[in-house]
Amino acid sequence: MLLRSKRVKVAPKPATTPKAIKKIRASQEKTQVTKAANAVVRIGRGALRDLLQMPMDIICEVLYCLGPFDLLRLARTNKAFRDLLIHRSSIHIWKEARKTVSGLPEPFPGMSEPAFASLCFENVCHLCFKSRIRKICWEFRLKLCSACEKTRTTPSSRLCVLDEDDREILLPHMSMKINIGTGYRSYRSSVALTSEAVTLRRTWKKLTNKKEKDKFIHEQTARCRELKKHIAKCQKWMLTFKSDRDEELEKIRDQRIEEIREKLEKLGYGDDLAWARGHGGLISLPHVHDTKPLTTQVWKDIGEDIIDYIEDNIRPFRIEDERQEFFEYCMPFFHEARASFARSHGNIFPLTNDLASIPQVTEVFTSLEDSDDIEVESFDSMIPLLPKIITTWRTSVDKRLETYLRTAAKAPSSVNIRDLAITRFLYCLGCSQIIQNTEVMPAIHDCVKGTKHFKSHCSFSSTNDPFKKACINSVTQAWMSSQYILISNYVQPVLQACGKERWTTVHELDQLDPRLTCKLGCEDSGIQTIYRWRDAVIHAATVHKQQANHFRQQKSVDRGLWEVLPLQEVEKLVCLDRAADEFAAAQKNEQHIWWCRHCEKHDLPKEGIVQHVKEDHGIKGPDEHDYFSNPDLPLTTTHTVLVVPDSYKESLDCLPESIKSFIETGRAMYQSDL
Are residues 397 and 278 in the same domain? Predict the structure, then answer.
């Protein structure tokens, strides 16, 4: 035993230094406190654990009220529920849950209840677990995404499972579209699940004799047949289930929309909703057209956004539409007030839209917005302004028309463009008619109401102003020079045939009064038509060039189209000209083109309008101051006469009725008389 003095002295262990205490700054401490205060505390977290503490019969009664998908989600909440619901002893719970879904078939042979519930109700690919997959491949008892359909299946033509030709019968298969390469070429083929094909092939290779193979084929064939029957039941159920589900969601959606509408109507947005119902403005909002019931909290979340949307995107357009409807309602009264003034002050008068585009008239319309009753007399304040408005408007129209004519005819400034013969005729793009450029026309020409040409050329067509939109939809249009095309190329051949220069005036041509015949032989059997120069232009423009493109492109007309009759032959046609003038006047009197200047009576024959003025207005001797003919009529060749060959003297029955009419009215003569 060693004495204390003999023992080896060991140096004492140094005292362990305490770990340095990490200092926490005040800002970090504040941050930690803030995070702790802002932490979301889930109320009732883990409350389902207490459900398993209840007696089993009560647990079963609770679980019987759930559907298959509810049980599937409950089994995934924690391990205890998973052990309870996935165990074989809980099969009765799944069967009762399946009864809650109307018409749901039993699971496929060999498939468990949870797997069948996942197949029917869970939107997940069963191979790659991609979400939002709704397509069910019943033949494979799986839900597959598009990628897995391509990689996990094999076309039946590539399967080398059996030597027999009936290998498709032994495998569950489905039709699928298969693309060829990277292009758009594709074809449809039967495909089978690759894993099932591999399993079937391995089983087949283990069979050694023909008896076993025949038995295997018989069993697989029977299995596939039973599987097809079960698939048909499942597909039929799925169609019914989707239809019922869609109806249920539609009812929820309609009820939600109706509740939102009731709340908005109480807030004073009823008129806006009535307007939006015809335009789909409110229903198109995602949080309105939802499939969840409208609760108080949901309305608090979305109500302010809906109101803002109405005030910004619905109410302004609704007010504009109402103003446009009001202005359109006023337009007939405005048109009547304008027509009454026009009848007493001559025919040359602005059309409705010409007046409506004038600021003074616009102010009259705006002042009527607060009026309850609109009448023709509501526009009496506009009448004193009309004389000055008419003068200003006509000056503007003449200036625009002369500018267009001078540019189109390439005429020098030294000539009076309105007096030239080549500027006498215009082609209207609105009605596809030829009109004369007289003092009245085309200022009052009204033909393009509602046509595509007018709306594409109108200066108001791209406007958002309600009043201008109402003008577009009114009874007439505003005057535009762009709706006319000068057809001087049809007058030039007439001038050349008469030996006149390009700048010949209408007065000079009327004094010459030539008679022309068409060289193209428009009449059969040698009958010759004699035209005056105006009728010749109308004939060429309507008979020989009927397409509008000829007018737009200003295609040249045959210079040798016309031949002028010698003076001695023209002198023999005087009696025919007199008969043609009388016939044209009689035709005009019989046409329903006469208007009364004292009222709205119009579209009557001359005899009818004269009788109307005598009986209804008490005027004994009506004259042109009491009625007038509508100048806005299509031009016709009513002053033409005919020269008929002598061979028809004894065979008049062979002539057409139109030619007989010329002979009976004295507008035709035989060749020997000429």
Answer: yes
Q: How many residues does the chain have?
A: 674
Axis-axis angle for helices 91-99, 56-64 (nearest 10): 30
Distance CA 342, CA 577 (A): 35
Distance CA 365, CA 328 (A): 11
Number of domains in the chain: 3
The reply to whether 141 falls in a domain is yes
Residue 427 DSSP one-character state: E
Cα-Cα-Cα-Cα dihedral of 49, 54, 60, 63, to 10°? Answer: -30
Q: What is the per-residue pLDDT for 488? A: 85
User: How far is 603 from 590, CA to CA, in rounded Å?
Assistant: 11
User: Is 661 a member of any domain?
Assistant: no
Residue 413 lies in a domain: yes
pLDDT tens digits, one per residue of 260-297: 889 988 999 888 888 887 656 667 677 888 888 999 99
- Note whether 337 and 297 are same-domain residues: yes
d(CA 70, CA 77): 11
**Enclosing domain of residue 110:** 50-122
Q: Are residues 139 and 235 in the same domain?
A: yes
159 and 285 part of one domain = no
Q: Which residue has the tokens 């039941």?
A: 233
- Residues in contact with 357: Cβ distance below 8 Å, sequence separation at least 6, in sequence order: 460, 468, 471, 478
Does 354 share its domain with 213?
no
> Do residues 642 and 667 lie in contact, with contact meaning Cβ atoms separated by under 8 Å?
yes
- Mean pLDDT for the chain? 79
Distances (CA, A) of 178 to 142, 171, 181: 19, 19, 10
Statement to judge: residues 305 and 169 lie in one domain = no
Same domain, 113 and 143: no
In a domain, 509, yes or no: no
Contacts by 287-295, CB closer than 8 A, 24 or more apart: 288/256, 288/257, 288/260, 289/253, 289/257, 290/253, 290/256, 291/249, 291/252, 291/253, 291/256, 292/252, 292/256, 293/252, 293/255, 293/256, 294/255, 294/256, 294/259, 294/260
| Residues 547-564: tens digit of each pLDDT | 444 455 555 555 667 888
Q: What's the sign of the alpha-carbon dihedral 94, 95, 99, 101?
A: positive
pLDDT at site 343: 63
Q: By the 8 A CB rule, do 596 and 602 touch?
A: yes
Q: Which of 522, 553, 526 is nearest to 535 (CA)?
A: 522
Average pLDDT for residues 327-340, to the nearest whole number? 78
Residue where one domain finishes, among candidates 72, 99, 122: 122
pLDDT computed for residue 133 by the predictor: 92
